[in-house]
Amino acid sequence: MSANNFPKLHNATWPGIVGKGPDSEPVISFDQMLEATAAAEVDGVKFDGVDIGLFDPHIDLDMSDDGIKKLADKVSSLGLEIGTVVAPIWGGPAMGSKDERATFVEMVKKSARMASKLRELGVRPNGVVRIDSASKPEAWALDPAGNTKLIAETFRAACDVAAEYGESLAAEGEICWGGMQSWKTMIDTLEAVDRKNIGFQADMSHTLLYLLGYNRPEDRILPADFDWSDRKTLDAGLRKLTDALRPWTIDFHVAQNDGTVHGTGSHDKTGRHCLATDPNGKLDIAYHAGFWLRDGDGELTKRFKHICWDGCMFPNEVMTKPQTWNDILAAMIKVRNAHGWNA
Questions:
Q1: Strand 249-254 to 261-262 pairing
Q2: What is the tens place of the pLDDT at every residue in 212-226?
Q3: Is the pTM higher than 0.90?
């Protein structure tokens, strides 16, 4: 067993909601997600915490201070902490109308307030507030320069309200979000925001799709006829990608991907999350996580104190099996053994 106790190992609760609902499978409750996380154990090691989505039906973003205290107590009672929180910004596209952009900023403000309250209560020792542009790539592509400018303006306003609560924002790069659908557009957007309290949330599944140029073919890194058995070229592509985005990365999702896109329910198609044990997975999870967790010289960055497993849009049958979470935890432990530290 490794002596490393950092980064802390978190599981995400929002896969109980994302891709679920009336046009898909039933939502898995917050309590179920918490209990499954707390129950997982591999060789005496357990998850340290959860990252949570601040949206219905899991969380009432407008809950009182007393409600926030009850939330903190519920999580703590299971031996877990809270890390990154996801702001429910999808009702207000960052490049939408004036009112829509105001809604975006208001959702970030409410999320930052709750996040700071959880920090004050001692249940949230680290983590950021996750956002995206909530805008479609096709709409963004009608005016790339103008829409990037508009997204940046919205993000700046969101950064300012988050700063009032001592919070930082992490923009998660996914191929389904305009201005964030490729590694180059993601960097352009972050550079345009020009605020100290914003960075990149890297998800190993979503960023793998950046290599293939989905929704932005001109920015693909791997050749169009790429053979996945060519691991040398894959590694070189991932080196280029991570070298460009790592300086911005302030939050990290461990994940697997089979090189395809996937969407369920109302969720747009994005990088398919695969199980940690999926034989079709293209990533060597522990090895490739190091591309993000170590700098170009191979030294640990220690940029964030927890890492999170993200596995959205798995069938409920899979998510309700205890073995699923043990397998995921085992993969997370391998990442920490290879790239962690003791503190």
A1: unpaired
A2: 998 999 999 999 999
A3: yes
